[in-house]
Structure formats: C-alpha cells, structure tokens
Design a protein that fits this description.
single chain, 243 residues, alpha/beta, Rossmann fold, seven-stranded mixed sheet, 9 helices, 17% strand
C-alpha cells in the first residue's frame, strides 16, 4: 500500500480513510499535529496509489493494515473516518496488543437502506452509476445533503477521481460484515466521535456501539456534519493527540 506521512514525531497515528476516500482525508489535520506525533495514512487497496488485490476481501485489507501497525516501534492510535473506523476495528481483532486506542469518526453501526440499495442487483449498479459515477448525480446529492455538512465541505467530491468498480466493491464487502457484536471482545479504548449535523443513522449508531464496545466513550462535535476532518479538524485533533 502507498502510505503518506504527516508530521515527524515518534508517536504514531494510523489514519484509515473511509469509503471513497484516500490518504488526503487526513491532510486537514496537519496544522494540529504536535511535534512528537506522526500520522501515517495509507491509500487502502484499490484507492489512490495502492493497487487492488482481487478479489477484494475485508479480511485481506485488515491484514495489510495489521502488518503496517506491526512495523511501528510502539503501540499506535488508530483514527478511522466512517468505514475506515470499521476497518480499524477489524484490524484491532488481529493485533490488539499493538493498538493504544481507537478514535472512530462518524461510524455507522449498520448499513442504512440508502447505501444497501446500491449493492442490490440488478438496480443497484445502475443507481450507483447515476449517483456516484455521474458529475451531475454527485452535484444533486451533495446539494440534497446540505443539512448534513457545512458550507465548506462536499460529501461527494472524493468520488470524482475514483475507480467506481473499486468503490462499489468496497460497499459490497462492507455490507457483508456481521455488525457491532463482532467486536464485543475488544477491550481497547474507543472514542466515538460524531458531528451534530451528521446522518441520523450515525447518531443512532452511537448507542448501539456503546452496547458492544466495553471500553467506549462518546463525543459530539457541535456544528459539524459527516466530514469531521474537513469541517472541524481543530476540534478533532485534541481527541486524537490529547489523551
């Protein structure tokens, strides 16, 4: 995997981007990285500069992330954006002793119908192309979701330069994960962070996650929507570096 680095400190954050993202998801944090920290941010397989192994399997992605964690000198902090946090939990099952804590940003506990629709055949592939692979479709959806974001963010922009076969394959793979009960054995501290203006499904998910994650706490970022790192990096940074 291609891995970008932000900062030059000895303490390490592994930043895992979400669906349709890449390593640049974590670029907005650069101004707030303390001198003794580094963020390592990979392009997940198939995104950005990282090749895609076929077939795409979440287990293989998690193993790649686990190898990256094991290559670090000490325990790492995982920060996952949306589904990136889910991949962080998957990775934590493999290497729990190498992880200090997890910061989960706007994490769904289940796949809402409006995402699951896009992996339902035969209509899902057509609907996906009209929504995510179309410039006009992306513009319409971003406008329709203005209440779930701030004016400076764009919920659909990251899809403009992606391989849509890859993004839809990830959505299919994520839809097959069993749910929060899978992570009930983890005793790693998890901070659940969500935006005040985010999707209702994310807000409902916080209580669900707290039922299963035995060492979880929650924090709402006022005024922010779904893209917390774009909209409120200065508020998220203390939750990552300040504990």
């Amino acid at each position: 995997m291609f891995v970008a680095e932000y900062g030059s400190g000895r303490k390490v954050v592994l930043g895992i981007h979400g669906w349709g993202g890449d390593h640049q998801t974590f670029a907005p944090l650069q101004r707030w990285i303390p001198y003794d920290w580094t963020i390592i941010a990979p392009d997940l397989p198939g995104y950005g500069r990282s090749p895609l192994p076929m077939p795409l399997e979440i287990e293989k992605v998690a193993k790649s992330l686990a190898l990256l964690i094991e290559a670090q000198r000490g325990k790492v902090v995982i920060v996952g954006s949306c589904s990136g946090a889910l991949l962080g939990l998957e990775t934590a099952l493999l290497v729990p002793n190498h992880i200090q804590r997890i910061v989960a940003l706007d994490l769904f506990a289940y796949m809402p119908w409006y995402f699951r629709f896009f992996v339902t055949e035969p209509v899902g592939s057509i609907a996906y192309r009209l929504t995510f692979a179309s410039r006009i479709g992306r513009a319409i959806v971003n406008a329709a979701l203005q209440s779930r974001r701030t004016q400076q963010s764009n919920l659909m922009e990251s899809f403009s330069d992606k391989d849509h076969a890859v993004t839809r394959a990830y959505l299919k793979a994520l839809s097959l994960l069993p749910g929060p009960q899978r992570y009930a054995t983890l005793n790693i501290p998890v901070t659940l962070v969500w935006g005040e203006r985010t999707f209702a499904a994310v807000r409902r998910s916080v209580a669900i996650w707290r039922q299963y994650l035995r060492n979880a706490k929650a924090c709402c970022i006022g005024g922010a929507g779904h893209l917390l790192l774009d909209e409120a990096p200065e508020k998220v940074a203390p939750l990552i570096f300040g504990e």
